[in-house]
Amino acid sequence: MPRNILITGGSGYLGGSLLAELKKTNLPAHGTTYALVRSDEQAEKVKAQYNATPITLDLEDQSAITATLLEKQISVVFYMINAANGDSQERFFEGLEKVKQQLGIETHFLHTSGAKIFSGFAQHPTDRVLSDMDDGLYEIQKRVAPQIPLFKQAVGANNKIIAAGEKYGVKTYIFMPCIVYGKGTGFGNRISIQTVAIVKAAKAMRRVCKVDSLEATWPVCHIHDTTALYLALLSKILEEEKLQNGRRGYYLASPGSIAWTDLYKQMATALDKRGIIDDDTVQEVSDDSPEEAGKALGCPKEFVPVQMGGACALQADRGKTIGWAPEYPAQHILDDADNEVDLILNNI
């Protein structure tokens, strides 16, 4: 029986790009692709631009979720919203268990988490490479005790989802986007997060500043290659191929890491060229720079490093085992900084 798919976050940067590329991709045989929408306007755009079937669903209503999954015979869910809270995600598992029983096929749930949840901010090790194929990644996730409440909640969400998969017999996957860049291809948000934060802060302060004293690195990935890993996973699911899942189901899309300092320098050059900042010098962190940046980003000064700094030692290995191969090297984010700045300035 052809599998029906549900994708959330169609108006977002990642979800929209996935749905847009899905339309152009020759996937293995499948049934209906449903896209979660919140308005009639989104529904029309989903039909017109993604060739997907819009669906509305109250994510707080357990009964409605279960009934919808059964009625639509949805056996694959790609959840691409709200990485920090696992409550809504948990409500899908009872329905997916019943679909599995009804159709006699495996059911699948992919949760979009984030590299930040596997970084120093979440008390993950940063003094050694942390492969997404590391057999101990789940155990690290279980024992870390983040001091920042948001990260404590987000780590808990990953744990909840894996536990729910084991309880209900649903295969789960934790997808970990990193610094994603490049133009989104969906109808909604076209820009990312961390690069946008650098531009917003610099524009308000008229300078680019470091936000912490770390000389740290972070994995990066072009939106095209990030979407390609989602599609590779979906293709393998539709082909009924065995994928690592559950406690070993971590997937990072990244060709490698770059130093924050190098990214700051390249973006400062692009911003200075446009007269957005006073000069292209990357200034050292000062007592007042986090507070100024926080005002520009709409967050407390303590949270500024989370937006555009920090250390993450994740390395992408598992995707390569299913045929994923990134087109853009890590260096490309630095080489393409001028285009990235232009994209951001035209969309903020």
Explained architecture:
Pfam families: Epimerase. GO terms for molecular function: aldehyde dehydrogenase (NAD+) activity. Residues 5-237 form the NAD-dependent epimerase/dehydratase domain. This is NAD(P)-binding protein. By secondary structure, the chain is α/β, with parallel strands linked by helices. The protein has a domain at 4-191 and 220-254 and 314-327: Rossmann fold, CATH 3.40.50.720. The protein is 42% helix and 14% strand. It has 14 helices and 14 strands. The strands form four sheets. The chain has a seven-stranded parallel sheet with strand order 3-2-1-4-5-7-11, with helices on both faces. It has a three-stranded mixed sheet with strand order 8-10-12. Helix 2 (40-50) links the parallel strand 2 and strand 3 (53-55). The radius of gyration is 20 Å and the shape is globular.
